[in-house]
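RETRY 2/3 - previous attempt timed out on the joint model. Re-submitting the same 1132-residue input unchanged.
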Amino acid sequence: MSVYRLLISCPDTHGLVAIVSQFILEFNGNIKEAHHHLDEQNQHFFMRIEIESNSISCSLDEFRAAFLIVAERCNMVWRLSDAAQLKRVLIMGSNASHCVADLLHRGHEDELEGQIVGVLSNHDKLSKLASWYDVAFEKVSIAKATKEADMTEMMQAVDRFNPDVIVLARYMQIIPEEMCAKYSGNIINIHHSFLPSFVGANPYARAAERGVKLIGATCHYVTANLDEGPIIEQDVVRVDHGDSADDMKKMGQDVEKITLAKGLQYHLEDRVLVCNNKTIVFS
Amino acid sequence: MSVYRLLISCPDTHGLVAIVSQFILEFNGNIKEAHHHLDEQNQHFFMRIEIESNSISCSLDEFRAAFLIVAERCNMVWRLSDAAQLKRVLIMGSNASHCVADLLHRGHEDELEGQIVGVLSNHDKLSKLASWYDVAFEKVSIAKATKEADMTEMMQAVDRFNPDVIVLARYMQIIPEEMCAKYSGNIINIHHSFLPSFVGANPYARAAERGVKLIGATCHYVTANLDEGPIIEQDVVRVDHGDSADDMKKMGQDVEKITLAKGLQYHLEDRVLVCNNKTIVFS
Amino acid sequence: MSVYRLLISCPDTHGLVAIVSQFILEFNGNIKEAHHHLDEQNQHFFMRIEIESNSISCSLDEFRAAFLIVAERCNMVWRLSDAAQLKRVLIMGSNASHCVADLLHRGHEDELEGQIVGVLSNHDKLSKLASWYDVAFEKVSIAKATKEADMTEMMQAVDRFNPDVIVLARYMQIIPEEMCAKYSGNIINIHHSFLPSFVGANPYARAAERGVKLIGATCHYVTANLDEGPIIEQDVVRVDHGDSADDMKKMGQDVEKITLAKGLQYHLEDRVLVCNNKTIVFS
Amino acid sequence: MSVYRLLISCPDTHGLVAIVSQFILEFNGNIKEAHHHLDEQNQHFFMRIEIESNSISCSLDEFRAAFLIVAERCNMVWRLSDAAQLKRVLIMGSNASHCVADLLHRGHEDELEGQIVGVLSNHDKLSKLASWYDVAFEKVSIAKATKEADMTEMMQAVDRFNPDVIVLARYMQIIPEEMCAKYSGNIINIHHSFLPSFVGANPYARAAERGVKLIGATCHYVTANLDEGPIIEQDVVRVDHGDSADDMKKMGQDVEKITLAKGLQYHLEDRVLVCNNKTIVFS
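RETRY 2/3 succeeded.
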């Protein structure tokens, strides 16, 4: 049963749910799932509605055009997507392979609501893995001396993949502001710590140094402010004094790959709305 | 900001959300929070809507009377409650005090959306604790030889408290079918295992015997089938070979009290719907 | 820094730690890590000691021969292994690939303290995955009509791999008693439920049916009693009413693969002792 | 079965375990439980040994005197305590009562290996709770204008209780350096965030602001560097976009009280060693 997904974010006003559900009913639409959330502090309302595609009495374009009028009246930020149109996913990695291998395997087993269109890396190591899974691989080296030119080349490579969403699967390079802006809300990173703890580099070494009893991973949208973007998902695992920074790194890799896959899946299913650098995740 | 809570369960049909939200809008009601769930397998629809009380243009009784017509048309099982009317909570315990003390403290600190009206026990031990918190205490002994008469007396004592919800905080006696039926959907038990593991008595001893690596607790509604009622909430804690059955009992007590408080709170906030011996918890 | 691992299980007696540590000191051995556990109920003592290999003043065989005398005096069940000798791991799977892919990737990245020597399956599906990772693949079909003969053939195939440990990565066939006995303590299974809940088939469907709020996975040694062997590791993940049996299956797969990898790693590092159908895991 | 607990921290050297276990054997001591840990980076060794008290062939003082010679030879920092001598616990609180009530209840039920000797607060609110549990209560107000004098008075009050361990159960005042030094390693604080996230004030508000998906609590030793002391125990709980800072505060209180009780219990059972601002917890 295929569905359309309607995501809405707007100032709270009287009768919003009635207006939207009435609109859907006029087109004979059948609501399969609906989530609402009122942010009381900001008096902002959020909705996610799944409508059975074939219950709608017109084309998606006509339905979208008709909703535009409602949306403008209520000052909505909104999007309407067809779940049958899989999002194009570009994976960017470096040398670490645990997240990339996990995503490729999920893609191969049709567990992701998306289509992995390529792996882009600044190193060769992931090439063999990508080819195993019949996924296009491209390498763009990033050197200190030629960073600006390299980054431009990288961004051109990204564009050639024409991705809907870009997954930084331990890419380890800072994304240029220009690219952050262009793909705003569509770049997902996995940070190998429980943010905001240990922002920046070498979080496991610093976690071991600080003697924390839990380590974690954070899946978040990338913004121009490093490690400060809206958090989609986090998880932790217990460690103890017997675990070195290296042990934590190994244990953390399992949390990283699961957390990244979960966050990406939420995004692919259009379950995430962003507001004031926070996410609403209708899971 | 006080709210009315509308809970609905009915066969799925076209336009349900529109019908209900349109109805609320006609009375000028402002929806603060709404949850929907479609059970696809059974084609059954569930809704929970919080409406700002003072946005409604008539009395609660008039609003309820008007909704009755909608409800009958759609074959709804429903209830409409006023959050300002706190539910009356009766705690039933035995000798173990961890859950009872925790609930009484939450009640005392106004952390429960309910009013604790009494503690009923088959032993004296909890009496002092109840009196500390200025909560009425009543004891009805249960003896093997006179069980039937004792149970009748117990049920009369329960009725005198006129409770909306009865919490079995490690009461350790099997509740008569008659009482299960009378307070159906309003008796909450905490079972000291991760059900359906270790149904019945001495779960910690059996968990230690089986060598499990996690133990847990289960908060569920009581039905005539012992330990088989709908599960509201569960949680677990990690144990290892160094933990004896006694250690597990101690560690489990923390999980029990937190899980019971959480499940009770869901019930008090009208977040739980029951269907086919399962719960829908709109948390 | 390579180590020998000495694992001991024996009736508790006076001065055990002194006897063993004195013995090691006589051979100039340097203890890197030591764990002790007294099972008070059974008055049984368990030890695991890591000794720096090159601190020992003789060969492993001489050291082993010398310890035999101590061991017999104290009635010890014991083993002494060289961590540098990687255990030979045979993976047995069926159609589901999540656990197999995860283990193969860990093997490939040198994250397992073992050497994966083959994948054995009753289906073809895992063949490509094994060949990607340059691991030998063998198929032995199991048909209802010819089960006995097929099982014999399967056991011969297993033997040809000469495995130290056999991992049932969702193999889905009941292992013959003969094989359970032959590889006793060296067959590891992942059960897709939080045992002892939902022993047997289709645990996710039954978990959905029962309406549990957490689902889990159990890594355990295989014995002739199906799903009753000693538990090595367990973990859980939270689910809710919105999750169907299929959703639970997907969510559970992540728990399965992590839990299996963790349990296997404990075994490969000689961290597990079995006593009375329970494990002592010196993690 | 009463035990002595021997805790040792010293530079790693050859035969340490043999030396110590041999020493214990000479006094006929029976080892009930032993933990060892080698910090490889710092080449430092840690031991915790439980010895059955009545197996020792001399008095505790004689045993201690004899061990002194061993300890000096090996450059040990060490302590030897008798579990039968309960540590004196002073609880310091402010207005929040969840942690204090939980600790008092555990004390009352003999679940703590310690004796609660008093509650000290800068407010009146906890007075009734303390008197319910028959625990001495003392109030020392802390005012901005007279802070220095008030703190001196507070420290005198603390001293009068002659505590072995001081528990800051949400005391909300910065402890003077002088007191940190005097009771070094014996002041335990519960911080209401998952340190090092949200060091300082109002962590729940800042967690809500940052949009994290898990919140936590940290039990740590107090040092002169605020919120920087060695971490004993941490735990987390899942939150989502629907949880306001107030909701997080409520949910966090359960994590706080459990985490504090767990950390305190480790301390009372002499399971914690501190090294380089980190803890070794032999749990």
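The first strand of chain B starts at residue 3 and ends at 11. Closing ticket.
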